[in-house]
Amino acid sequence: MDGIDVLVSEVGPRDGLQSIAPVMPTAAKLDWIAALVAAGVREIEVGSFVPARLLPQLADTGEVVRAVRHRHPGLHVAVLVPNAKGAEAAIAAGADKITLPLSASETHSLRNLRRTHEEVLEEVQRIAGLLGACPEGTRPAFEGALSTAFGCTLEGEVPEAKVVALAERLVALGCDEVGLSDTTGYANPAQVKRLVRAVQAAIGPERLSGLHLHNTRGLGLANVVAGLEVGITTFDASQGGLGGCPFAPGASGNIVTEDLVFMLEAMGLRTGIDPERLMAARAVLKAALPGEPLYGFTPDAGLPLGFRRAA
Amino acid sequence: MDGIDVLVSEVGPRDGLQSIAPVMPTAAKLDWIAALVAAGVREIEVGSFVPARLLPQLADTGEVVRAVRHRHPGLHVAVLVPNAKGAEAAIAAGADKITLPLSASETHSLRNLRRTHEEVLEEVQRIAGLLGACPEGTRPAFEGALSTAFGCTLEGEVPEAKVVALAERLVALGCDEVGLSDTTGYANPAQVKRLVRAVQAAIGPERLSGLHLHNTRGLGLANVVAGLEVGITTFDASQGGLGGCPFAPGASGNIVTEDLVFMLEAMGLRTGIDPERLMAARAVLKAALPGEPLYGFTPDAGLPLGFRRAA
Lengths: 311, 311
What we know:
The structure is a homodimer. Chain A is an alpha/beta fold.
């Protein structure tokens, strides 16, 4: 795998901050994002177009998208949208990529979003319509993200055939790409390989955009290795593992960007990200969120003596 | 890989306790070992035959070996020995397996054991002589464990050719098997695959006994996945990640048995170990070491809803 390019998509400013109570000021978010870009991060999910009363932390998403586009023209600016209304706002702000989550577990979908699969798929169709009307060169990429794809805390096992069928529906209704999310930290490496291969076979490998893995049971990076084995080259991660400590301390949610980048670069895979500068971005984040625990093994242990990045 | 048997070799009672200051009474060690055996653990490194004044924690190793052999006739009882004198004691006590560590980094060997490679290799030869004199059916297996095989905190990179050459010497001088240890937590999955393949090619896959991996930079289980990909079926682990928190909290040393067993069983690989009963053994350990931090993600998060062990 030596020399392959891997895209580490930073989701901290959205997925990370989403579960943090103290609202980070817009200026602090922009400083953190600037530090991430300086470290070489090429794609960042900067926010979510949800109603401000539901998520005050992300109420400034439009402002953040506009500022970031201006300051970092080369950055791929991604946002989450729960519906067509959010997609409209994302298009207006100039996002490069919009991601709509669809929970493979319908129980989870009903409980958390109060919507059936069919209702979410109708939103997908509406968003595809909006995107079709975008002027040439302004249309963002459209990803359908299958959450609870590896299991659900309410339903338990989620049949792989259901995940594959939903992936096909998403593409048929207008998604450019489909992502698989281990929302619950249930995935294991054998399952990752099996499900990725099944989805690749159904919609084509070029339409499986990447994996969003959690480290809830410590298997996050092991699942990345499994993903790499079957050709995945995009992985979400969150700086400091921000965004989800659903259990006791140490049992983080998102995989930690610092550990992921160290692993990939040590393996000879090119992320474009400088691990030392990533630590500088971590310091910016830490200063902006005093008292909030940040996770990661590599930040504690430091880089190995004589460590070299991928050539 | 479905249905393959994997041996999880528990090193907590030796490698784990070794770095703990309060000496655990022999009876408590035996209770913990009994709980591990009840969970299905098939091999345990129960101690080390080093001078008692150097390591009071393991001064009762002879007594532990004898008691464990009597109580758990089916258990594979492993011990560490630093030299031929230790091997003599191990043979007398009736160990099933003796492991002699040899640091691939000579600087590390000199600094930690005050011995050159040649001096350690002379001990190997002496031990092979002792083993040759064992009566039929009483001869323990003899493993040479190459520590710092994936890098050294003093030398940095350890050339793979050096590791391969030392593995060949160990076998030539009488070791039945060679193990590779990531003593420093420097290993990455690409390196694991590369080095395992190189050693397999040199001494034969049947003589590469297993991997001893650390989780210092969070890559422990990712490195296990890499090992599985190239045919490794024995992995050391320590309950609660005991034995080495060389850095800040959370940056544990040994990979955590609870997380490893969960991952392997979830992957459909048979460890013979019941994750629920392993938690009971953890409770025994916790009671015996009050105040000592135990690590692991799965113990905090619990097993996934609907989790099934490998068939």
